């Protein structure tokens, strides 16, 4: 498997490519991962401007029309049936996307969300992007969180992805290894698996004046460990006597009440400009998780000039490469030390981390690896 930290030199062997790119099954309103939606849209925007892509057709839906920033010559067809209801989604997964890929006649069909049909092989070359192996993680760790029929369906979709993809792209070496491990568990020989990473861009404006506030990210899914975040943060707040505000952004899990404490402010969702401003003004960003395929929030925090405090996981270690302040979920003392250390990190050090991460994780680099992988797999 190819690391996204390694250089990706070009050669004359890279051929012109024809590509159908399907995001018809994604929307802001229905997505369970804003990160995967943003990855899909931004990768498309950079692919659309590469001369190696001789022909590009986009399979989309009307909810994404105002989010796509594509050259006018790129044809986009709308397939709203993919989001209309459960039957429409299944029909798109199992037959619709492949039918459109065959109709368009491009060599490749790219599924950036990663779930392929298990009913049949793809009539053209199939490329998928697997952002994480969270489905398999939930099957092992939180089996009761997934209804039986959904578990059965996605289990077979994962098998279809591994069996029928000609190349699988992932966003970290950790996830690449997970894909190979899962394939072995299924008894399936995996195709080529290539790490491409995720790109980031420097924000147009970053606040230079910090305010007395800490930003915490909540999540409605169990692996985001919002329960542990409440427990550790309440304990730290009492021990430290912190006088600023502690601001939570995100939805809380069903059955877990948002904490009502002095100076704790809850935002279920913020407009993007407000969220970016809060990230830039906070003294620290705190991010709990038990499982990540990449872990974007700590990277974004450094880019916005705020020291991240985050769970120490295989993917975040790989991505952050020592930037920020990590902690062990199993130890409150580790969390307390990390958060207290974050207040001592100088702005120059955080800025240096942000610069290094921006140089390491670029969209042109991601697209280079995609094009190289497609060309070498034809």
In short:
With 378 residues, the protein is an alpha/beta fold. It has 13 helices and 13 strands. Helix 1 crosses helix 13 and helix 9 packs across helix 12 (347-360).
Tell me what you see in this structure.
By secondary structure, the protein is α/β, with parallel strands linked by helices. The chain is built from 13 helices and 13 strands. The protein has 2 domains: 17-199 and 362-377, Rossmann fold (3-Layer(aba) Sandwich); 213-360, 3-Layer(aba) Sandwich (Rossmann fold), CATH 3.40.50.2000. A 7-stranded parallel β-sheet has the order 3-2-1-4-5-6-7, with helices on both faces. It is globular and about 65 Å long. Residues 1-12 have low confidence and may be disordered.
So what's the CATH class of the largest domain? Alpha Beta
The profile of the biggest β sheet is:
7 strands, parallel
**What is the total number of structural domains?**
2
User: If strands are numbered along the chain, what order do they take across the biggest sheet?
Assistant: 3-2-1-4-5-6-7
Fraction of residues in helix: 40-55%
Give the percentage of residues in beta strands. 15-25%
What name does CATH use for the topology of the largest domain? Rossmann fold
How would you name the CATH homologous superfamily of the largest domain? Glycogen Phosphorylase B
């Amino acid at each position: 498997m190819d690391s996204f930290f390694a250089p990706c030199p070009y050669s004359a062997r890279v051929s012109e490519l024809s590509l159908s790119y399907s995001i018809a099954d994604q929307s802001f309103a229905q997505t369970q991962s804003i990160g995967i939606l943003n990855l899909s849209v931004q990768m498309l925007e950079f692919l659309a401007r590469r001369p190696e892509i001789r022909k590009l057709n986009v399979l989309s839906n009307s909810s994404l029309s105002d989010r796509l920033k594509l050259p006018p010559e790129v044809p986009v067809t709308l397939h709203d049936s993919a989001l209309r209801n459960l039957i429409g989604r299944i029909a798109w997964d199992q037959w619709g996307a492949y039918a459109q890929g065959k109709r368009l006649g491009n060599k490749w069909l790219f599924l950036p969300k990663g779930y392929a049909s298990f009913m049949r092989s793809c009539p053209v070359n199939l490329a998928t992007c697997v952002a994480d192996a969270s489905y398999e993680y939930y099957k092992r760790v939180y089996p009761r969180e997934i209804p039986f029929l959904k578990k059965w369906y996605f289990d077979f979709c994962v098998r279809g992805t591994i069996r029928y993809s000609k190349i699988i792209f992932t966003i970290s070496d950790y996830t690449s290894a997970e894909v190979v491990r899962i394939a072995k568990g299924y008894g399936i020989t995996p195709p080529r698996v290539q790490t491409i990473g995720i790109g980031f861009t420097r924000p147009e404006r970053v606040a230079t004046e910090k305010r007395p506030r800490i930003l915490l990210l909540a999540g409605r899914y169990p692996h985001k460990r919002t329960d542990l975040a409440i427990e550790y943060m309440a304990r730290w707040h009492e021990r430290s006597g912190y006088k600023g505000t502690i601001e939570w952004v995100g939805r809380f899990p069903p059955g877990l009440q948002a904490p009502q404490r002095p100076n704790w402010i809850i935002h279920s969702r913020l407009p993007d400009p407000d969220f970016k401003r809060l990230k830039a003004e906070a003294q620290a960003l705190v991010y709990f998780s038990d499982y990540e395929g990449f872990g974007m929030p700590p990277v974004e925090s450094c880019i916005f000039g705020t020291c991240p405090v985050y769970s120490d996981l295989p993917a975040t270690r790989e991505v952050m490469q020592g930037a920020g302040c990590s902690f062990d979920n199993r130890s409150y003392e580790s969390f307390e030390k990390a958060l207290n250390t974050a207040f001592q990190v100088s702005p120059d050090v955080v800025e240096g981390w942000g610069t290094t991460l921006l140089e390491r994780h670029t969209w042109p680099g991601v697209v280079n690896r995609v094009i190289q992988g497609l060309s070498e797999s034809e």
